[in-house]
Structures are given as C-alpha cells and as structure tokens.
Amino acid sequence: MMKRWQFVKRLAPLMLVMTLVLAACGREDLSALNPQGPVAQQQYDLMKLSILIMGIVIAVVFLLTLFVIIRFRRRPGDNTIPKQIEGNHKLEIVWTVIPVIMLVILAVPTLQSVFALGKDYRNDPEALQVKVIAHQFWWEFEYPDLGITTAQELVIPAGKKVMVELISNDVIHSFWIPALAGKIDTNPGGIKNIMYFSAPEGVFLGKCAEFCGPSHSLMDFKVKSVSESSFDRWTVAMKEPTALPTDPDIASALESQCLTCHAVGPENSPYPSLKGIGSRESVGGVLVNTEDPKYGHEGTTYDNLYNWIKNNETIKPDNHMAGAYELSEEEMKGIAEYLTNLTLDFED
Ligand SMILES: [Cu+2]
After folding, report:
1. Domain edges within the chain
2. Distance of CA 127 from the midpoint of ligand 1 (Å)
3. I want to staple 225 with a disulfide (CB 3.0 to 4.6 A). Which of 149, 158, 260, 343 is the partner?
4. What is the C-alpha to C-alpha distance for residues 7 and 115, in angstroms, rounded to an integer?
5. What spacing in Å lies between the alpha carbon of 13 and ligand 1's midpoint?
6. Rounded to whole angstroms, what are the CA distances from 315 to 63, 120, 256?
7. Could you read off the pLDDT of 255-278 as tens digits, one per residue?
8. Candidates 2.60.40.420, 3.40.605.10, 3.30.70.100, 2.120.10.10; correct CATH number of 248-340?
9. What tens digit of pLDDT does each residue of 147-162 get?
10. Record's SUPFAM superfamilies (predicted)?
C-alpha cells in the first residue's frame, strides 16, 4: 500500500505538467468543442450524447463496484464461499439488453447525422458551389458558377449553405475547419469527396489534417464568412483587372519573377492567386497579419509579405517558391509594398 502511494506521488507532477501542456493546445478557434454553424453543432450534439451515455455507464459501473467491494468484502473469520451465479439467465439477459438499448439510442441519431451530413447539394441552386483543390502546402478555392479562383482564404456568405467538392493536386490532404465541420480527405487522381457546411459571420481557421509533407502543419487557411452584400461586392471586385506597379523596375521584376507562377488579376494561375492578397488575414497561410502576440508572428501585412518573399523557405519548408525567383532587396520591398496595397474593398 505504501509503495502505491509513492508511485502516485511521483506521477502527480507529470500529470500536472501534461494537463497544462495539453490545455495550451486547446486554442479556441481550433476546437470542435466550440461549434459555429449548424453542421458543427450537429456533430457536437452527437459528441455530447455519446459522452453522456459513456458517463452514465462509468458512474453505474463504478458505484456498483464500490458497493460490492464494501458490502460483500471478506470479513474476519468468514471462510465460506459466496453463492455462485454462473449461468444465471436473468442476469445474462439484463446485461445484454441494457447495452443493446444504449447502442440503439446512440446509433439512431448517429446514422441520421451521417446520412444528413453526407448529402449531396451539388445540384442545389440555393447552395454556394466551391471546388477545393489541395496543394503542397496551400489551398485553392474555385467558384465555378462565379468564375472566380482564389487561394488560402475561402470567402463565403454567412448563413448560406456552402457545398465543397474536394480533390488534391498531389498527395492526400485533409480539409478541416474545426469550428465549422468535420474533416474530409482530398484525394489525388480526380477522386472527388464532398461536404457541406455553413457559418455565421466571422473568420474561422482551417487546417490540413492529413500528414502530407514537411510543411503539413503549416498548411493553414481561413474561412471568411461575410454578409451577403459584402460577398456580392467581393465577387465583383475579384473579377476586376489589377494594375501593375507604377514603378517600372518593380513592375518588370514582378512580371518576370512572380507572375510566371502567380496572378495578381482575376486570371487563373498554377500557384496561389495574389488577387486581393492585401485584404487577406494572413500571408502564406501562417503569417497572420496582426499585432496580437497570440499568433506568434506579430506583423503587419507588409512585414509579413516582405518576410515571406525573403524567407519563405524557412517559414514553410519545401514549398515550391524557394529558388524559383531572384529579387534584389529593393525589388522585394517594392513588391511587398505593391502586394500590401492589393486590397479589395468589400467588407461592411
Ligand atoms: Cu496537407
């Protein structure tokens, strides 16, 4: 008995540290336990139901065990063997039927949700259709009905059903917006997966949830859910042409070094579209444009763009930009400034 207490005492500090470390992982915007929108809410309700059932089972089993340990413990001088209950039909029926009932209570809403959340709204004119194409290590969002392609930031109208059809351009990734919906894999080889969700107004963090290479953990994106009128203004702004830098040196550097892979205007490009990049919440998905130290990288949009152009290989290892261009210090600054001003005026 003494030894066991020593063991618990020794483990206690480790438990405490683990609790603190694991609690620190629970950033609010990355938690499925803070559901935003109906799909996440339905999934959260299922979690609550299953935890409730588990809790009841644990409570009943523990209480019964405690009761039996105390009530039927061996008393001094008592050497009789307790009554044996092997083959007791009544008991066997009870402990078979109760779990079956509990599983049915869990199975009915689970199956209902599985089918409801797997519904295909690709032909629903009320739903916003988006094609998601995952790349190492960024996200492409195509709005086929609107003729718009963007990257890293999925802009949607609040409250509207968003139907995503997902594929991958290279390896398997997984599309996950913890606050809005469950995870869904993106497959190479044109195998399409689908999912739908909707969101209240706000910005929600998305992650790649499938190990896909050196920068897997940095494959972040945002869902920006805005009012219907803001969304309409965004769709108009996204189709307008973009002027090149007024400084001819910066313009020629941009064209020869950047626009071979990217586009600043509404046209398609093989790598992330830079149209309206000055209005995005982050650069490269991970450099959040904020002075809030909570994100680790404090920086304005300009700071982050400059830092990204200069150091993207260290910021996001194995991304395809490294070594693909050559820019002088002046050109990097000029391009960062130009991109900072590529804003879209659409929010309320
Ligand atoms: Cu990935």
Report:
1. 248-340
2. 26
3. 158
4. 48
5. 36
6. 53, 38, 23
7. 999 999 999 999 989 999 999 999
8. 2.60.40.420
9. 999 999 999 999 999 9
10. Cupredoxins, Cytochrome c, Cytochrome c oxidase subunit II-like, transmembrane region
